Automatic annotation (TrEMBL):
Taxonomic lineage from the root: Bacteria, Pseudomonadati, Pseudomonadota, Gammaproteobacteria, Pseudomonadales
Record's keyword terms, sorted: Lyase, Pyridoxal phosphate
Residue stretches making up the Tryptophan synthase beta chain-like PALP domain: 25-305
UniProt organism field: Pseudomonas putida
Obligatory cofactor(s): pyridoxal 5'-phosphate
Protein name: Threonine dehydratase
Record-stated family: Belongs to the serine/threonine dehydratase family.
One Pfam family named in its UniProt record: PALP
Single GO MF descriptor: L-serine ammonia-lyase activity
Keyword Lyase in annotation: yes
GO biological process per UniProt: isoleucine biosynthetic process; L-serine catabolic process; L-threonine catabolic process
Classification via CDD domains: Thr-dehyd
Domain of life: Bacteria
Length: 318
């Protein structure tokens, strides 16, 4: 991935704001009281698709139209939020969007993808198997295969980091979830483009800790499974291009348990009345784990999405 300049990110912002407004970042007093530090929440649960990925979808489709004007449409694999963003952005530009999800994927996320104009295909036992099927369908239907990580996706996602750092330039630390890595790479890119000093801390699930294991080993490590209810974190093997960025640019990576994520979801609800999906709450969960080291500091947490099935949320909140 080439290094993004401030100009790159500002250009991306102009494209993004044609399709959606900037999202808010709020300092929530009850969270700050609970954790003993100033907590800024970046509300990516308030985008048109309920998650941060839509920003990358918008910039990616603009690039695709320019770089591959012959493309009739796209195909991609997802657990949900990336697929919604691709369907939303492709439909807006009149392109076909074929979305491959693993079997047993979130019914509500599948419905949302269809609602935004995507065609949903269920295949395989997990995200990695769905990805292989997407590559096959791309050839079969002559569609452009959207990778889970790409400079143009990161460029769009970096617009949320630009908004956050513009509103709160003196953040000491920002916690950001890691799935395929566009979020953390975007936060690192925006921080560096603005010349800021904030520590960027990645967050994974203890049940899908490949990014943390890789970060600590200094080379890519794979896990046997990625069985976490935080489906946005459910990746067995880091994407090499993303790993290259966060291996260098992140301060550390924290692993949080299923119960710590569930507790953070409940805290979001009681302290801010916001809905967070598992991956969306993981950054706050990591701050809660590290609250001792964060006393008196200025901290940002990315609430990356709120797309959680009702039955799962009912179980967590109950």
């Amino acid at each position: 991935m080439h290094t993004l300049t401030l100009d790159d990110i500002q250009q991306a912002a102009r494209q993004v704001y044609q399709a959606m407004p900037a999202t808010a970042q709020y300092r929530w007093p009850l969270l700050s009281e609970r954790l003993g530090c100033t907590v800024w929440v970046k509300h990516e649960n308030h985008t048109p698709t309920g998650a941060f990925k839509v920003r990358g979808g918008i910039t990616f489709m603009h690039w695709l139209k320019r770089a591959h004007p012959e493309a009739k449409g796209i195909v991609t694999a997802t657990r949900g939020n990336h697929g919604q963003s691709q369907a939303f952005a492709a439909s807006a530009l009149g392109l076909r969007a074929l979305i491959v999800v693993p079997k047993g994927n979130s019914i509500e996320k599948n419905n949302a993808m269809r609602g935004f104009g995507g065609e949903v295909v269920e295949y395989g036992r997990d995200f990695d198997e769905a990805r292989e099927e997407a590559a096959r369908l791309a050839k079969q239907h002559d569609l452009y295969l959207v990778p889970p990580f790409h400079t143009e996706l990161v460029k769009g996602v970096a617009t949320y980091a630009l908004e956050l750092f513009t509103a709160a330039p003196d953040l000491d630390t920002v916690y950001v979830p890691i799935g395929c890595g566009s979020g953390i790479c975007a936060v690192i890119a925006a921080r560096d483009a603005l010349g800021l000093k904030a520590e960027v801390v990645g967050v994974v699930s203890t049940e899908a800790a490949a990014a943390k294991l890789s970060f600590e080993a200094g080379e890519i490590r794979e896990t046997e499974s990625a069985n976490t209810f935080a489906d946005g974190l459910a990746v067995r093997k880091p994407i090499p291009e993303a790993f290259a960025v966060y291996a260098k640019g992140a301060a550390r990576i924290v692993a949080v348990s299923e119960e710590q994520i569930a507790e953070a979801m409940r805290v979001y609800y009681t302290d801010t009345h916001n809905l967070a999906e598992g991956a969306g709450a993981s950054a706050l969960a990591a701050l809660m784990v590290e609250r001792g080291e964060m006393q008196g500091k200025n901290v940002g947490v990315v609430l990356s999405g709120g797309n959680i099935d009702r039955s799962v949320y009912a179980r967590v909140i109950g």
